[in-house]
Write a structure and sequence with these properties.
The complex is a heterodimer of chains A (202) and B (131). By secondary structure, chain A is mainly α. Chain A is 65% helix and 7% strand. Chain A folds into two domains: 1-61, no CATH class; 85-202. Chain A has a three-stranded antiparallel sheet with strand order 2-1-3, with no helix packed on it. In chain A, β1 (135-140) and β2 (146-151) form a beta hairpin. The longest helix of chain A is centred in the middle third of the chain and has 29 residues, at 101-129. The two termini of chain A are 31 Å apart. Chain B has helices spanning 9-30, 38-48, 55-67, 91-115, 120-129, and strands at 36-37, 71-76, 84-89. Classes of the chains: A mainly alpha (202), B mainly alpha (131). At the A-B interface, α2 and α4 of A face α1 and α3 of B.
Chain lengths: 202, 131
């Protein structure tokens, strides 16, 4: 079908904007969506290809941003269920957090989980680099009170202190850190499966 | 003119929720007899029901039904010069449509029984019976 130049331009502009707003998705999915919307527009204007008819058809679809957002939320959360990367999971949860209280709660718990898990992991790694100054010390003060001191870095260990974990910090940090990251990740996939209710727009 | 105490939009909001809830079943029902492409589904819903679906809603919803495994899609060349994406029910989709249809029929029958006294005919009769 050959369209008037202004009609063709309006459709091209709409589809380009839609493609831009769908950029989070996989190229294969984007291609499929854009092609389907293009087919829909062409079917709608099959009897009237005027710029007015095109404008009405595009308006009925909503703005490219609105339309893309309906696809993106569905797609991101769907793919998050089979995601492998914590960063991707967090990105999906952030999107969910903007839509519901449960999403917000899961996102916040996940941020805390990843931070603590990551911190333990980094701590174990620092123990390898600066073994003397990285560890958990029990410090004894002058009045015989004591405290725990978690140190890391390249400086000196704290004075009047005995290290509690020694090289045990390595397995504890790596295993506990990895376990926490893993559990936080699983919490994300489980929550999405359990609580995510796709929205239907009318 | 004095406005009614009940805000008029509350019943409309309820109706919107009702329509939202039934849209998935409506699409599965539209596909019951065979494959259709997006615009055909929309026109089918408009012709066979008073469900007027915003076009920008139907396509993401079809996408979701596909990801849930209830429908499958294929691109088919058409005489109009561009390919169209056709949807058809999978066996899981047919199963789901039957289940939802059963639930709908049972629920609407029970609601109809409950709502019978509210119908205009029975309202007139009950007024007649009153002294």
């Amino acid at each position: 079908m050959t369209l008037p130049a202004d009609s063709q331009k309006a459709i091209d502009t709409y589809l380009a904007a839609l493609r831009k707003h769908l950029r989070d998705l996989m190229e294969e999915d984007v291609q499929d969506i854009v092609q389907e919307i293009n087919a829909h527009i062409l079917d709608k204007i099959s009897t009237d290809t005027s710029a007015v008819a095109v404008a009405a058809t595009l308006a009925a679809l909503g703005t490219p941003e609105e339309l893309a957002s309906r696809y993106r939320t569905e797609e991101l959360l769907k793919r998050a269920q089979s995601a492998r990367s914590p960063a991707y999971m967090l990105c999906s949860l952030f999107r969910w957090a903007k839509l519901s209280i449960i999403g917000l709660a899961v996102f916040l718990v996940s941020v805390v989980g990843y931070c603590i898990g990551g911190f333990l992991f980094i701590l174990a790694a620092l123990k390898l680099i600066w073994p003397r100054a990285t560890g958990l010390w029990k410090t004894v003060n002058g009045d015989s009170s004591w405290g725990l001191n978690l140190g890391f870095g390249s400086g000196d260990p704290p004075a009047n202190a005995s290290e509690l974990l020694g090289w045990w910090l390595l397995p504890i940090g790596f295993i506990l850190g990895a376990a926490l990251v893993f559990l936080t990740f699983r919490l994300g996939t489980w929550s999405i499966r359990k609580f995510w209710r796709p929205r239907v727009w009318l | 003119m004095k406005e009614t105490t009940q805000p008029p939009e509350s019943a409309e909001k309820w109706e919107v929720q009702l329509r939202k809830g039934s849209l998935e079943l409506a699409i599965l029902a539209a596909l019951w007899q065979g494959r259709l492409y997006g615009l055909e589904i929309l026109r089918h819903l408009e012709t066979h029901s008073d469900l007027i679906v915003v076009e920008g809603t139907a396509y993401p919803l079809l996408n979701r039904l596909r990801s849930l495994g209830l429908v499958e899609s294929e691109w088919v060349e058409s005489d109009s010069g561009h390919p169209r994406k056709y949807y058809r029910l999978t066996s899981a989709g047919r199963q789901r449509a039957l289940e939802m249809s059963r639930i709908w029929t049972r629920f609407s029958a029970s609601m109809n029984g409950l709502l019978a006294p509210l119908s205009p005919e029975s309202d007139t009769e009950s007024r007649k019976e009153q002294p």
